[in-house]
Design a protein that fits this description.
The structure is a homotrimer of 350-residue chains. By secondary structure, chain A is an alpha/beta fold. In chain A, 13% of the residues lie in helices and 28% in strands. The first copy, chain A, has 5 helices and 40 strands. Chain A has a 12-stranded mixed beta sheet, covered by helices on one side. In chain A, strand 39 and strand 40 form a beta hairpin.
Chain lengths: 350, 350, 350
């Protein structure tokens, strides 16, 4: 899969400063590049890191300069990042095509319906009455529960679990280890301890949704937990029972959405964010990383903070907090000037 | 599985305002209901959302009124939420009964002992000397390590992993992707780097415990990590080595309990909460969502805050923090009145 | 596996106060010990808990004293904790040796290369062109993608997933449910919604790395996500695409490292910590539990706080925050003395 620098420079319509026969085996960032890798300098502020990079060549902008003694070959182009990205396809490792058909080492219930163009790999397990659409791939060890319905061109990676009755649209991608349709977390006090609330609902996932690895999405107590069309969910996210996520949302890793909360279309959640249960988040709301949305949020709100509020307000609080130790001293000074005795609580100031 | 409104109203002893032949296919909440669903209005504050609901009919209280032109059929009862809940069983989708016996596509070690009424599904894997009790179900892809002991009427969902020597009581339910009995996280500095501390202990889980999906429970360094009878654990929770969780606790999603910590009976943890290691949490302690319990907590304590304290105290701090930007201004004003020069640290106030 | 107290005392060169024929079946901590267990009192502050322990015997230091009426047998040694630890090996339950060879119930692609001394268990699944080194064990239900390379003496626990092209060094241990090499979380706005950024890179994991259960490590967009030699990662950790983790780091449970961040050698992250994306963490940096590293951190920094800063500074802020409700009152008092009207914002003080 090696390409030489001359060919690459021609493909990019770039100007090569260096040996055109140098062979490039892969693409990498400045920090992780190794011998044989081609990298790029997308912004001037990264230029100081070039000396430490082990890349064999760099794509750079017109204005880029190296130390006089630097010998690393350069390809000069107008837009280095875009040029680099245009090479991704050329360097992509070949992926073996998934053959269509059902592996003899898979287990498929007699009453399941698998499209002839679908692919079911070894040790996958498909329950009674399940329907798998055209060109969908079910990887090794995935479990598709009974009466699950999966659309076309979906990819269920190894060891994904879809529990009974879950429904997926078309072109849904679910990464390994993710569990969709486990019971919601609901109990009520009983005589002998907590009694389980039965969860008879299900989960419905819209077209073009992608869900990361080790995500958990609980089935509804009744009705359905829904993930809207085009929404993207990162790894290790928790979506509780009866949650309604809108369309085209982006939810970063380790976020938790509590039960019965609704999230409007186009919302963005940073990593390790969370919502309380039964709150209503409007459309196009941004929750910063770690924001904790304990109340309803209106359309377009930008929320920040562990017990989140509007970003402007919360950032002011955060900035003020940094001045608090100093403020304690200042108030003590004022009290002294006015002859007020220092209160006990202040003795450890600073 | 469709029921008509007339039959439903009769079953509920309710008064039907609408067409008794309307067919209902499922139950759902106001927000996620679709055509064919029956929903309910449990509290007056939800009434404004009725206009936006797509439910085909509603169960409502005696005092409920809709807009004059509304045409949605209503069933009036004294207690709408309870009436709705009483229908769950009637609408529950049929679950295929688990047949007893061992799937020919399962792998069961010759020395394992499986009760004749137990069910072991395809691609489940049961190790040497493991014991599986009466009417217990081991779903597809679950791995039961060697010498594991599982009681009666347990359910191990698809792809659960129980490592060697783990013990489960009766009626324990473990959801998919959960791993019980992995090694604890312990190392000591050695000559060539960190050396692993061997974990020769195990995990014991009491009767009637339910554990969510993608939960990790580490085995003890020695002795046992224990989860007490009747405790319920949500998805993506981490329980470290040598932790002792009491009976009838409730631990919400994404919480982490650090090594060697003990948690008394009847404690409740909100989502994304945590404890430090080696702390002792009393009985009936409540940890709010995201509470970080860094110290011991006495029986009955209600803990709040990232570095948690008693809820009353921490809420006062949180309220005070919201006034801090204003306080900075007020102190500057006082300093001005007293002729004290503004300190450098205050120049960015507000 | 029972040993009697006389034998144990002799092995430890300890002095036995009690019946040498008492049989010991296991080792346990003071809090979780049961009848038949031997425990120890490592520090004097644990002595008060002895009365509540159910251990059958204790290893104690020379100065240890019990209540006069206590009848628990004691073994006195100079260093109780070390003596107790020296017994771990003796009491370790036997683990069945992994036979070498490929289970007939495993699926191994014809083009994969499995060392003759490696062991591939039932329902494991190994893709085209994968290479598995000497004495490596692939447990039940693990999926090894195509062209993955695994070194010697590695252990891949049940249901681990390594996606295509991932590379592991020697002696790497990965616990159950962990997914290495899933796609990074990257999209760009397109006409019909978010468009997926292809991730053509991979993940490389150095020698002697250990990774806990249900961890997710994303493949690089290009180049490689790397985990340096000797690093240890706890359960439920998220490592995003293009992250570079150095050597001999320790990353506790539920931590998240965001995309393209670099972490130097010898760093330590407490539980539920996090970094922002594209930040550079130096060598030997300590991030306290829950620390959120939003900016670059220099070598040796000790970082603390949700939006983390140097520990000294952040602890002062935290301490000051506890005095804030009192400070509000003090400022109101000052204002009163100077005849300044109380501002509206202060009316809810305390």
């Amino acid at each position: 899969m090696a390409r030489n620098l001359g060919d690459i420079a021609r493909r990019l319509n770039g100007q090569l400063d260096g040996d055109p026969t140098v062979e490039i085996h892969g693409l990498a960032g400045l920090f992780d590049a190794r011998a044989g890798d081609l990298s790029f300098v997308g912004e001037v502020r990264y230029a100081p890191f070039v000396a430490r990079s082990r890349a064999s060549a760099l794509i750079v902008g017109p204005e880029f300069t190296t130390a006089p003694n630097a010998s690393i070959p350069l390809i000069r182009v107008a837009k280095p990042a875009a040029a680099f990205e245009s090479l991704l396809d050329w360097f992509r490792p070949e992926r073996p095509a998934s053959p269509s058909g059902i592996s003899p080492a898979a287990f498929v219930a007699a009453s399941a319906s698998i499209a002839p163009t679908a692919c079911v790999h070894a040790h996958a397990n498909i329950g009674d009455g399940a329907v798998v659409g055209d060109a969908t791939i079910v990887h090794a060890g995935a479990r598709i529960g009974s009466n699950v319905r999966i659309g076309r061109q979906c990819v269920l990676h190894a060891n994904v679990v879809l529990q009974d009755h879950v429904r997926l649209g078309d072109r849904v991608v679910i990464h390994s280890g993710t569990v969709v349709g486990c019971d919601g977390f609901g109990y009520r006090p009983g005589k002998a301890g907590l009694e389980k609330l039965e969860h008879i609902g299900t989960v419905e996932i819209g077209d073009d949704v992608e869900i990361g690895a080790c995500v958990t999405i609980d089935r509804a107590r009744f009705g359905r937990t829904t993930i809207g069309r085009g929404t993207k969910i990162d790894n290790l996210v928790q979506i509780a029972h009866n949650v309604q996520i809108g369309e085209h949302c982006v939810i970063a890793a380790q976020t938790g959405i509590s039960g019965s909360t609704t999230v409007g279309d186009g919302c963005v959640f940073g990593g390790q964010a969370a919502t309380a249960g039964h709150v209503h988040i409007g459309r196009r709301v941004t929750a910063a990383a770690r924001a904790g949305l304990t109340k309803d949020a209106p359309d377009g709100a930008v929320m920040f903070g562990i017990y989140a509020g509007p970003v402007r307000e919360k950032r002011r609080e955060e900035a003020a907090l940094r001045k608090l130790p100093d403020l304690l001293k200042r108030v003590r000074e004022l009290e002294k000037q006015l002859g007020i005795a220092d209160s006990g609580g202040a003795t450890e100031d600073g």
